[in-house]
UniProtKB/TrEMBL annotation:
PROSITE patterns: AA_TRNA_LIGASE_II (PS50862)
Oligomer and partners: Tetramer of two alpha and two beta subunits.
GO terms assigned for molecular function: ATP binding; catalytic activity, acting on a protein; magnesium ion binding; phenylalanine-tRNA ligase activity; transferase activity; tRNA binding
Protein name in the entry: Phenylalanine--tRNA ligase alpha subunit
Gene3D superfamilies: Bira Bifunctional Protein, Domain 2
Reactions catalysed according to its record: tRNA(Phe) + L-phenylalanine + ATP = L-phenylalanyl-tRNA(Phe) + AMP + diphosphate + H(+)
Aminoacyl-tRNA synthetase as UniProt keyword: yes
Length: 345
């Protein structure tokens, strides 16, 4: 048995020395020191030895086990150190290399237009108001002087959910709700940006969903000149100080009188080109003095209070401001299109 134990020790130490990785070393540990290993088996045979030989063989067996275990621990420390060094070498970073560029997000052109308009009017004392996109027929039409059966409803072909619920066709319901909350007491000075929906065929200039920005002012002694001055400041802020405006008579059920506002063409400076259809002017928005019926339905005394309202399409503004020729570009999520607007930051 002595020769057997010494041979086991020699074989184990050789294999430990030749081990190349931690897995192989662990296999050697299990093979020699495990419960079914040769050293354990040798110890089981000690019962056949004489009383004089047992202590000697027991001590030798423990010496062999200890020597093998010690060799394995030393080899394990070496292999672990080598593994760490190898991993560090593989993961070494060259800090002198130039960094990889990080793609940074950018404001969508419609978001930029809305925020620019909001900043302008907030600076003029307006507050930003919001309302539901799924709206009641009453606030979308009736409270705005458009009773059921009114022919002007056909101008806004609507998405109805029920007979009295629809997707709002403009942000004017926000104005109606805000006036109602004021309970007939002024002043009211709000701007209402948001999505609106109409049953329209999508093409280069039309969409079934688009952004609208509306404004409303109600107070005592509000006049058409206040509206004109406000719109003039708006045009110069968004399109340049050299822009001129003109107001043309129009019709909207919720304003009286009503006007369309044009700005002088920023391409040809009013001389006439294909963009302005040779007129020198570009239609930009609709506006007017709030109709007395709208004031009365919201609880305001139309003899005491007056006001003006205006509404514009954010896409229309963005298309003119940035030279976009197709409204669908705003909604196709083409990063090549959106990347162009980094230069406008």
């Amino acid at each position: 048995m002595e020769e057997q134990l010494l041979q086991l020790k020699q074989d184990a130490l050789v294999k430990v020395k030749e081990a190349c990785d931690l897995k192989e070393l662990n296999d050697i540990r299990v093979a020699y020191l495990g419960k079914k290993g040769p050293i354990t088996e040798a110890l089981k045979g000690m019962g056949k030895l004489s009383a004089e030989e047992r202590p000697k063989m027991g001590a030798l067996a423990n010496e062999v086990r200890g020597a093998v275990a010690s060799a394995i621990e030393e080899k394990q420390a070496v292999l672990e150190k080598e593994a760490v060094a190898k991993k560090l070498a593989a993961e070494t970073l060259d800090v002198t290399l130039p960094g990889r560029p990080v793609n940074i997000g950018n404001h969508h052109p419609l978001t930029r237009v809305v925020e620019e308009v909001e900043d302008l009017f907030i600076g003029m004392g307006y507050t930003v108001a919001e309302g539901p996109e799924v709206e009641k027929d009453y606030y979308n039409f009736e409270a705005l002087n458009l009773p059921k059966g009114h022919p002007a409803r056909d101008m806004q072909d609507s998405f109805y959910i029920t007979e009295d619920i629809l997707l709002r066709t403009h942000t004017s319901p926000v104005q109606a709700r805000t006036m109602e909350k004021h309970e007939g007491k002024g002043p009211v000075k709000i701007i209402c940006p948001g999505k609106v929906y109409r049953r329209d065929s999508d093409d280069a200039t039309h969409s079934h969903q688009f952004m609208q920005i509306e404004g409303l002012v109600i107070d005592e002694h509000i006049r058409m000149s206040d509206l004109k001055g406000t719109l003039n400041a708006f045009a110069k802020k968004l399109f340049g100080e050299d822009r001129e405006i003109r107001l043309r008579p129009s019709f909207f059920p919720f304003t009286e009188p009503s006007v369309e506002m044009d700005i002088s063409c920023m391409i040809c400076k009013g001389e006439g080109c294909s963009v302005c259809k040779r007129t020198g002017w570009i239609e930009i928005l609709g506006a007017g003095m709030v109709h007395p019926n709208v004031l009365e339905m919201a609880g305001f005394d139309s003899k005491k209070y007056s006001g003006f309202a205006f509404g514009m399409g954010a896409e229309r503004i963005a298309m003119l401001k940035y030279g976009v020729d197709d409204i669908r570009h705003f909604y196709t999520n083409d990063t090549r299109f959106l990347h162009q607007f980094h230069e406008h930051e």
